[in-house]
Fold this protein.
Amino acid sequence: MKRYLLSQSVKKILLWSLVLVFVLAFVAMVSAEKVEITYWQYFYETKKDTIDVLIDLFEKENPDIMVNQVTFPYEDYNVKVAASVPAGVGPNVVNLYYGWLPLYINADYLQALPEDAFNPEMIEKDFFPLVSAAKVDGKYYALPTAVRSLALIWNKDLFKKAGLDPEIPPQTLDELVEYAQKLTVYDKAGNLVEEGLTAELRGQLHHWVREILIRQFGGKPYSDDNRKVTYNDQSGYDALTFITDLTEKYKVGQPGFLTDDVTAFKAGKAAMTVDGSFRIGTLDKLENLSYGIAEVPSHHGIKSNFASFWANGITSFTEGEQLEASIKFLKFLTSDSTMELWLKNIGELPAKPSVAFKEENINDPKY
Protein backbone atom coordinates (compact mmCIF):
# COMPACT_ATOMS: atom_id res chain seq x y z
CA MET A 1 0.00 0.00 0.00
CA LYS A 2 2.84 2.44 0.87
CA ARG A 3 4.60 1.56 -2.37
CA TYR A 4 1.33 2.27 -4.27
CA LEU A 5 0.84 5.66 -2.58
CA LEU A 6 4.44 6.58 -3.28
CA SER A 7 3.96 5.65 -6.92
CA GLN A 8 0.84 7.81 -7.12
CA SER A 9 2.68 10.75 -5.57
CA VAL A 10 5.50 10.43 -8.07
CA LYS A 11 2.97 10.38 -10.93
CA LYS A 12 1.30 13.55 -9.61
CA ILE A 13 4.66 15.30 -9.32
CA LEU A 14 5.61 14.29 -12.84
CA LEU A 15 2.22 15.38 -14.15
CA TRP A 16 2.41 18.83 -12.51
CA SER A 17 6.00 19.18 -13.68
CA LEU A 18 4.88 18.58 -17.25
CA VAL A 19 2.04 21.09 -16.85
CA LEU A 20 4.47 23.67 -15.50
CA VAL A 21 6.87 23.06 -18.40
CA PHE A 22 4.05 23.55 -20.92
CA VAL A 23 2.84 26.73 -19.16
CA LEU A 24 6.34 28.21 -19.08
CA ALA A 25 6.87 27.28 -22.72
CA PHE A 26 3.55 28.92 -23.64
CA VAL A 27 4.41 32.09 -21.71
CA ALA A 28 7.83 32.23 -23.36
CA MET A 29 6.24 31.74 -26.78
CA VAL A 30 3.67 34.51 -26.16
CA SER A 31 6.33 36.87 -24.79
CA ALA A 32 8.55 36.18 -27.76
CA GLU A 33 5.74 37.18 -30.09
CA LYS A 34 5.15 40.51 -28.34
CA VAL A 35 6.58 43.68 -29.78
CA GLU A 36 8.17 45.77 -27.03
CA ILE A 37 8.31 49.57 -27.21
CA THR A 38 9.44 52.21 -24.74
CA TYR A 39 7.71 55.47 -23.82
CA TRP A 40 9.53 58.38 -22.17
CA GLN A 41 8.20 61.42 -20.34
CA TYR A 42 9.47 63.67 -17.55
CA PHE A 43 8.27 62.74 -14.07
CA TYR A 44 5.12 64.41 -12.84
CA GLU A 45 3.14 62.16 -10.55
CA THR A 46 -0.34 62.46 -12.04
CA LYS A 47 1.02 62.18 -15.59
CA LYS A 48 3.13 59.13 -14.73
CA ASP A 49 0.21 57.42 -12.98
CA THR A 50 -2.17 58.20 -15.83
CA ILE A 51 0.19 56.78 -18.44
CA ASP A 52 0.43 53.61 -16.34
CA VAL A 53 -3.36 53.28 -16.53
CA LEU A 54 -3.36 54.02 -20.26
CA ILE A 55 -0.63 51.46 -20.95
CA ASP A 56 -2.69 48.82 -19.16
CA LEU A 57 -5.76 49.67 -21.26
CA PHE A 58 -3.70 49.75 -24.47
CA GLU A 59 -2.06 46.38 -23.80
CA LYS A 60 -5.45 44.78 -23.19
CA GLU A 61 -6.58 46.06 -26.59
CA ASN A 62 -3.24 45.08 -28.15
CA PRO A 63 -2.02 41.89 -26.43
CA ASP A 64 0.82 41.57 -28.94
CA ILE A 65 2.42 44.86 -27.79
CA MET A 66 4.24 45.62 -24.54
CA VAL A 67 4.87 49.26 -23.55
CA ASN A 68 7.48 50.22 -20.97
CA GLN A 69 7.25 53.66 -19.41
CA VAL A 70 10.42 55.44 -18.27
CA THR A 71 10.46 58.83 -16.54
CA PHE A 72 13.21 61.29 -15.67
CA PRO A 73 13.38 64.52 -13.66
CA TYR A 74 12.39 67.48 -15.82
CA GLU A 75 15.81 69.14 -15.61
CA ASP A 76 17.55 65.98 -16.90
CA TYR A 77 15.08 65.08 -19.61
CA ASN A 78 16.59 66.63 -22.75
CA VAL A 79 20.07 65.48 -21.74
CA LYS A 80 18.81 61.90 -21.54
CA VAL A 81 17.14 62.17 -24.96
CA ALA A 82 20.28 63.67 -26.50
CA ALA A 83 22.43 60.87 -25.08
CA SER A 84 20.21 57.97 -26.09
CA VAL A 85 18.33 58.60 -29.35
CA PRO A 86 21.41 59.25 -31.57
CA ALA A 87 22.79 55.93 -30.29
CA GLY A 88 19.62 54.14 -31.37
CA VAL A 89 18.46 53.35 -27.84
CA GLY A 90 15.89 54.82 -25.47
CA PRO A 91 12.32 55.75 -26.31
CA ASN A 92 10.30 54.76 -29.35
CA VAL A 93 7.57 57.21 -28.42
CA VAL A 94 8.78 60.36 -26.68
CA ASN A 95 6.89 63.13 -24.90
CA LEU A 96 8.23 66.62 -25.57
CA TYR A 97 7.29 70.26 -25.12
CA TYR A 98 6.10 71.68 -28.43
CA GLY A 99 8.67 74.47 -28.23
CA TRP A 100 11.43 71.86 -28.40
CA LEU A 101 10.33 70.58 -31.80
CA PRO A 102 12.86 72.58 -33.87
CA LEU A 103 15.68 71.30 -31.65
CA TYR A 104 14.46 67.68 -31.83
CA ILE A 105 13.95 67.81 -35.59
CA ASN A 106 17.28 69.50 -36.36
CA ALA A 107 19.06 66.98 -34.15
CA ASP A 108 17.28 64.12 -35.97
CA TYR A 109 15.62 62.83 -32.79
CA LEU A 110 12.20 62.53 -34.47
CA GLN A 111 10.80 61.16 -37.68
CA ALA A 112 7.88 62.75 -39.48
CA LEU A 113 4.60 61.02 -38.71
CA PRO A 114 3.66 58.74 -41.63
CA GLU A 115 0.84 60.39 -43.54
CA ASP A 116 -0.94 57.11 -44.29
CA ALA A 117 -1.49 56.73 -40.54
CA PHE A 118 -1.75 60.43 -39.58
CA ASN A 119 -3.39 62.28 -42.44
CA PRO A 120 -2.58 66.02 -42.14
CA GLU A 121 -6.08 67.05 -43.29
CA MET A 122 -7.69 64.83 -40.67
CA ILE A 123 -5.34 66.15 -37.99
CA GLU A 124 -6.31 69.74 -38.79
CA LYS A 125 -9.99 68.78 -38.88
CA ASP A 126 -9.94 66.89 -35.58
CA PHE A 127 -7.60 69.01 -33.43
CA PHE A 128 -7.71 72.62 -32.27
CA PRO A 129 -5.73 74.92 -34.62
CA LEU A 130 -2.77 75.13 -32.23
CA VAL A 131 -1.79 71.64 -33.44
CA SER A 132 -0.18 73.44 -36.39
CA ALA A 133 2.71 74.29 -34.03
CA ALA A 134 3.73 70.63 -34.41
CA LYS A 135 3.95 71.00 -38.20
CA VAL A 136 7.39 71.80 -39.58
CA ASP A 137 8.14 72.20 -43.29
CA GLY A 138 4.71 70.80 -44.13
CA LYS A 139 5.05 67.65 -42.01
CA TYR A 140 3.69 66.74 -38.58
CA TYR A 141 6.27 65.40 -36.16
CA ALA A 142 4.18 65.09 -33.00
CA LEU A 143 0.62 65.30 -31.70
CA PRO A 144 -0.79 66.52 -28.37
CA THR A 145 -3.14 64.72 -26.03
CA ALA A 146 -4.00 67.85 -24.10
CA VAL A 147 -3.54 71.59 -23.85
CA ARG A 148 -2.46 73.49 -20.76
CA SER A 149 -3.62 77.02 -20.08
CA LEU A 150 -3.00 79.43 -17.22
CA ALA A 151 -5.45 80.26 -14.47
CA LEU A 152 -5.75 82.16 -11.23
CA ILE A 153 -6.06 79.68 -8.37
CA TRP A 154 -7.06 80.82 -4.89
CA ASN A 155 -7.41 79.35 -1.41
CA LYS A 156 -11.01 79.76 -0.26
CA ASP A 157 -10.21 79.32 3.44
CA LEU A 158 -7.63 82.11 3.36
CA PHE A 159 -10.15 84.34 1.57
CA LYS A 160 -12.64 83.76 4.40
CA LYS A 161 -9.95 84.43 6.99
CA ALA A 162 -9.17 87.81 5.32
CA GLY A 163 -12.86 88.75 5.18
CA LEU A 164 -13.14 88.22 1.41
CA ASP A 165 -15.89 86.35 -0.40
CA PRO A 166 -14.37 82.89 -1.05
CA GLU A 167 -16.41 82.46 -4.22
CA ILE A 168 -15.41 85.73 -5.90
CA PRO A 169 -11.79 86.06 -7.10
CA PRO A 170 -10.24 89.33 -8.31
CA GLN A 171 -11.25 90.19 -11.86
CA THR A 172 -8.61 92.79 -12.75
CA LEU A 173 -4.94 93.36 -12.03
CA ASP A 174 -5.82 96.26 -9.74
CA GLU A 175 -8.16 94.02 -7.77
CA LEU A 176 -5.50 91.31 -7.74
CA VAL A 177 -3.06 93.63 -5.95
CA GLU A 178 -5.79 94.88 -3.61
CA TYR A 179 -6.79 91.32 -2.66
CA ALA A 180 -3.17 90.21 -2.32
CA GLN A 181 -2.43 92.98 0.16
CA LYS A 182 -5.39 91.95 2.31
CA LEU A 183 -4.32 88.31 2.19
CA THR A 184 -0.64 88.81 3.05
CA VAL A 185 0.41 88.11 6.65
CA TYR A 186 3.69 89.00 8.39
CA ASP A 187 4.62 88.10 11.95
CA LYS A 188 5.78 90.63 14.56
CA ALA A 189 9.39 90.12 13.54
CA GLY A 190 8.59 91.08 9.97
CA ASN A 191 8.77 87.56 8.55
CA LEU A 192 6.36 86.57 5.78
CA VAL A 193 3.92 83.99 7.12
CA GLU A 194 1.29 83.84 4.37
CA GLU A 195 1.72 85.07 0.80
CA GLY A 196 -1.08 87.05 -0.75
CA LEU A 197 0.17 86.09 -4.21
CA THR A 198 3.04 83.82 -5.22
CA ALA A 199 5.97 85.50 -6.92
CA GLU A 200 7.98 82.59 -8.31
CA LEU A 201 9.17 83.31 -11.84
CA ARG A 202 10.75 79.85 -11.97
CA GLY A 203 7.24 78.42 -12.13
CA GLN A 204 4.47 79.40 -14.51
CA LEU A 205 4.74 83.14 -13.83
CA HIS A 206 7.24 83.65 -16.64
CA HIS A 207 4.48 82.52 -19.03
CA TRP A 208 2.11 84.98 -17.36
CA VAL A 209 4.59 87.83 -17.90
CA ARG A 210 5.65 87.03 -21.44
CA GLU A 211 2.43 85.71 -22.95
CA ILE A 212 -0.26 87.63 -21.06
CA LEU A 213 0.96 90.72 -19.24
CA ILE A 214 2.98 91.95 -22.24
CA ARG A 215 -0.21 91.94 -24.31
CA GLN A 216 -2.31 93.47 -21.54
CA PHE A 217 0.19 96.32 -21.25
CA GLY A 218 -0.14 97.02 -24.96
CA GLY A 219 2.71 95.04 -26.48
CA LYS A 220 3.27 91.81 -28.38
CA PRO A 221 5.66 89.08 -27.27
CA TYR A 222 6.94 88.06 -30.71
CA SER A 223 7.42 89.22 -34.25
CA ASP A 224 4.82 88.18 -36.84
CA ASP A 225 6.96 85.23 -37.92
CA ASN A 226 7.44 84.18 -34.26
CA ARG A 227 11.22 84.21 -34.63
CA LYS A 228 12.09 87.22 -32.46
CA VAL A 229 10.99 88.55 -29.10
CA THR A 230 9.61 92.05 -29.43
CA TYR A 231 8.96 93.20 -25.86
CA ASN A 232 12.12 95.21 -25.27
CA ASP A 233 9.88 98.25 -25.09
CA GLN A 234 7.53 100.09 -22.75
CA SER A 235 5.10 97.17 -22.57
CA GLY A 236 7.89 94.88 -21.45
CA TYR A 237 9.05 97.39 -18.88
CA ASP A 238 5.52 97.86 -17.54
CA ALA A 239 4.81 94.13 -17.36
CA LEU A 240 8.04 93.38 -15.52
CA THR A 241 7.54 96.36 -13.22
CA PHE A 242 4.12 94.99 -12.29
CA ILE A 243 5.76 91.72 -11.24
CA THR A 244 8.64 93.29 -9.32
CA ASP A 245 6.23 95.65 -7.57
CA LEU A 246 4.47 92.63 -6.08
CA THR A 247 7.58 91.87 -4.03
CA GLU A 248 9.37 95.22 -3.79
CA LYS A 249 6.51 97.70 -3.45
CA TYR A 250 3.46 95.79 -2.23
CA LYS A 251 5.41 92.97 -0.53
CA VAL A 252 2.67 90.41 -1.11
CA GLY A 253 5.03 87.54 -1.94
CA GLN A 254 8.64 86.42 -2.06
CA PRO A 255 10.57 84.24 -4.51
CA GLY A 256 11.62 81.06 -2.72
CA PHE A 257 8.98 81.39 0.01
CA LEU A 258 8.55 77.88 1.49
CA THR A 259 10.86 76.66 -1.30
CA ASP A 260 8.55 77.48 -4.22
CA ASP A 261 5.07 78.63 -5.23
CA VAL A 262 3.56 75.15 -5.57
CA THR A 263 4.75 74.04 -2.13
CA ALA A 264 3.47 77.25 -0.54
CA PHE A 265 0.03 76.95 -2.12
CA LYS A 266 -0.34 73.24 -1.35
CA ALA A 267 0.62 73.95 2.27
CA GLY A 268 -2.10 76.59 2.59
CA LYS A 269 0.46 79.36 3.01
CA ALA A 270 -0.20 81.16 -0.28
CA ALA A 271 -3.62 82.67 -0.91
CA MET A 272 -3.37 83.07 -4.69
CA THR A 273 -1.17 81.75 -7.47
CA VAL A 274 -1.07 81.80 -11.26
CA ASP A 275 -0.46 78.27 -12.44
CA GLY A 276 -1.15 75.80 -15.23
CA SER A 277 -4.30 73.74 -15.63
CA PHE A 278 -2.18 70.59 -15.18
CA ARG A 279 -2.07 71.42 -11.47
CA ILE A 280 -5.78 70.60 -10.99
CA GLY A 281 -5.24 66.85 -10.68
CA THR A 282 -2.59 67.38 -8.02
CA LEU A 283 -4.62 69.87 -6.00
CA ASP A 284 -7.73 67.70 -6.12
CA LYS A 285 -5.86 65.03 -4.18
CA LEU A 286 -5.32 67.36 -1.21
CA GLU A 287 -8.21 66.71 1.17
CA ASN A 288 -7.61 69.79 3.34
CA LEU A 289 -7.35 72.27 0.49
CA SER A 290 -10.46 74.17 -0.60
CA TYR A 291 -9.61 76.09 -3.74
CA GLY A 292 -11.16 77.88 -6.67
CA ILE A 293 -9.91 78.40 -10.20
CA ALA A 294 -10.75 81.18 -12.65
CA GLU A 295 -9.48 83.14 -15.63
CA VAL A 296 -6.37 85.22 -15.03
CA PRO A 297 -7.32 88.86 -14.28
CA SER A 298 -7.86 91.34 -17.09
CA HIS A 299 -6.20 94.75 -17.44
CA HIS A 300 -7.84 97.82 -18.98
CA GLY A 301 -10.54 95.55 -20.33
CA ILE A 302 -8.05 93.24 -22.05
CA LYS A 303 -8.42 89.53 -21.37
CA SER A 304 -5.66 87.17 -22.41
CA ASN A 305 -4.41 83.66 -21.78
CA PHE A 306 -1.66 81.31 -22.85
CA ALA A 307 -2.03 77.83 -24.31
CA SER A 308 0.81 75.38 -24.68
CA PHE A 309 1.11 71.64 -25.00
CA TRP A 310 3.31 68.61 -24.63
CA ALA A 311 3.17 66.32 -27.62
CA ASN A 312 4.17 62.75 -28.41
CA GLY A 313 6.39 61.86 -31.34
CA ILE A 314 8.17 58.79 -32.70
CA THR A 315 11.96 58.67 -32.56
CA SER A 316 14.04 58.50 -35.70
CA PHE A 317 15.57 55.06 -35.06
CA THR A 318 12.17 53.34 -34.62
CA GLU A 319 11.33 51.06 -37.53
CA GLY A 320 9.72 47.77 -38.52
CA GLU A 321 7.41 46.15 -35.97
CA GLN A 322 8.35 48.72 -33.35
CA LEU A 323 7.28 51.51 -35.71
CA GLU A 324 3.92 49.82 -36.32
CA ALA A 325 3.43 49.38 -32.55
CA SER A 326 4.47 52.99 -31.88
CA ILE A 327 1.95 54.26 -34.43
CA LYS A 328 -0.80 52.30 -32.70
CA PHE A 329 0.25 53.65 -29.31
CA LEU A 330 0.39 57.24 -30.57
CA LYS A 331 -3.09 56.89 -32.05
CA PHE A 332 -4.29 55.57 -28.69
CA LEU A 333 -2.67 58.49 -26.82
CA THR A 334 -4.51 60.97 -29.05
CA SER A 335 -7.89 59.25 -28.95
CA ASP A 336 -11.00 60.86 -27.48
CA SER A 337 -11.13 58.35 -24.62
CA THR A 338 -7.53 59.09 -23.64
CA MET A 339 -8.19 62.84 -23.68
CA GLU A 340 -11.22 62.35 -21.44
CA LEU A 341 -9.18 60.37 -18.91
CA TRP A 342 -6.31 62.90 -19.12
CA LEU A 343 -8.71 65.74 -18.34
CA LYS A 344 -10.18 63.88 -15.36
CA ASN A 345 -6.86 62.79 -13.86
CA ILE A 346 -4.63 65.77 -14.63
CA GLY A 347 -6.74 68.78 -15.55
CA GLU A 348 -5.11 69.59 -18.88
CA LEU A 349 -7.75 70.44 -21.45
CA PRO A 350 -8.48 68.13 -24.42
CA ALA A 351 -6.67 68.87 -27.67
CA LYS A 352 -9.79 68.03 -29.69
CA PRO A 353 -13.06 70.02 -29.81
CA SER A 354 -14.97 66.71 -29.86
CA VAL A 355 -13.94 66.16 -26.23
CA ALA A 356 -13.46 69.73 -25.00
CA PHE A 357 -16.92 70.84 -26.10
CA LYS A 358 -18.82 68.04 -24.39
CA GLU A 359 -21.55 69.60 -22.30
CA GLU A 360 -20.26 68.21 -19.00
CA ASN A 361 -16.80 69.63 -19.68
CA ILE A 362 -18.00 73.06 -20.80
CA ASN A 363 -20.20 73.36 -17.71
CA ASP A 364 -17.58 72.20 -15.23
CA PRO A 365 -16.61 75.25 -13.12
CA LYS A 366 -12.91 74.36 -13.09
CA TYR A 367 -12.47 73.33 -16.69
Notes: The first strand starts at residue 35 and ends at 42. The longest helix spans residues 2-33. The mean pLDDT is 92. DSSP finds 15 helices and 14 strands in the chain.
